Amino acid sequence: MGISYKDAGVNIQAGENTVDRIKALAKSTFNNNVLHGIGHFGAFYKIDLNKWKHPVLVSSVDGVGTKIKIAIALDKHDTIGQDLVNHCVNDIAVCGAEPQYFMDYIAFGKLIPEKAEQIIKGFSIACKENNVALIGGETAEMPGLYAENEYDVAGTIVGLVEQEKIIDGKSVTKGDMLIGFSSNGLHTNGYSLARKVLLNKYKLDDKPEELNLTLGEELLKIHKSYLPLINLLKENISIKAFSHITGGGIIGNTKRVIPENLKMKIDWNSWEVPAIFELIQKAGEIEDNEMREVFNLGIGLVAIVNKNDVDKTLTLGKSIGETGFVIGEIT
Asked: Are 137 and 25 in contact (CB under 8 A)?
């Protein structure tokens, strides 16, 4: 008998099993704009033209980096999907967009349907929390490219914004203030450096005295969605710009929404840096500038507002449990 696809490491039946497992998870996120179900060659999503006058599509694609290594090591796969959806949602929400639908890509060395189901369960949880439809995706088995127990994920988000309501930083002026809102740890950035320095000294089930959780639990904290906060602020304040703090840190990301003739002055002592970052810095003897370029250091979202709106911005954030700090100004 000749060699089969399964002999080469690809199990078609496992793929079909996975699709059967995830259909209900995906359908639980559907809304009236989703046409058809999972399994077609393309996904169908209609736009309510009665709601939008001059709609602009806003899209983003991303992954979660080597945070996946922590999930694999702990055999915990139901939070990575939430990380990815929330990261993507934030990236378009800071532009003023209302997220509409999400699509995923997962590649395995060996496809384990139960593991895929847990990842997609995470997608569905975050999609429902953000009122986003999970309308399609691709699951690939790629032996020889990935180790048998490894996988990677990526996602694409698409949203809509009225053209006149795009938030792009064009109105930022000298004297505007930077309000930083707390992150939930590393979110999805800096894990290659964090793993390199921390795992030389600790095990994932260790509980360093600086932390209230095990190291593994701390590193798998879910990337926060700032969509409720962004919506609240843009409905009540004339927001100049938002910045989602990911790879590149506070300065690297915020400078993207500041006109070229302006700069920002950050007061790095204006908030308390969470213990996990201090642990990383100490373990690797990392310089301050390197930490600031790689990590969010406890600030996951920056709002740029007129100085007269600072108090209102902080109060609105506090009303939904979001802690904010005045972290700098535009100069």
From this structure: no
Q: Centre a 10 Å sphere on the Cβ of residue 74 and count the other Cβ atoms it contains.
A: 16
Q: Is 171 within a domain?
A: no
Residues 274 and 210 in one domain: yes
Alpha carbons 125 and 35: distance in angstroms, whole number: 21
Residue 22 carries which side chain, given as an amino acid letter? I
Domain's final residue, options 165, 186, 218 = 165
Q: Looking at the structure, do residues 194 and 302 belong to the same domain, yes or no? A: yes
In whole angstroms, what is the distance from residue 86 CA to residue 90 CA? 6
Q: Residue 84 maps to which CATH number?
A: 3.30.1330.10
Evaluate whether residue 49 is within a structural domain: yes
pTM, whole model, 2 decimals? 0.94
How many separate domains does the chain show? 2
Q: State which of 113, 140, 165 marks the end of a domain.
A: 165
Q: Say how far apart CA 300 and CA 283 lie, in whole Å.
A: 23
| Per-residue model confidence as pLDDT tens digits over 75-110 | 999 999 999 999 999 999 999 999 999 999 999 999
pLDDT tens per residue across span 235-285: 999 999 999 999 999 999 999 999 999 999 999 999 999 999 999 999 999
Mind listing the pLDDT tens digit for each residue in 33-80?
Answer: 998 766 678 889 999 888 999 999 999 999 999 999 999 999 999 999
- Which residues constitute the domain of residue 305? 177-330
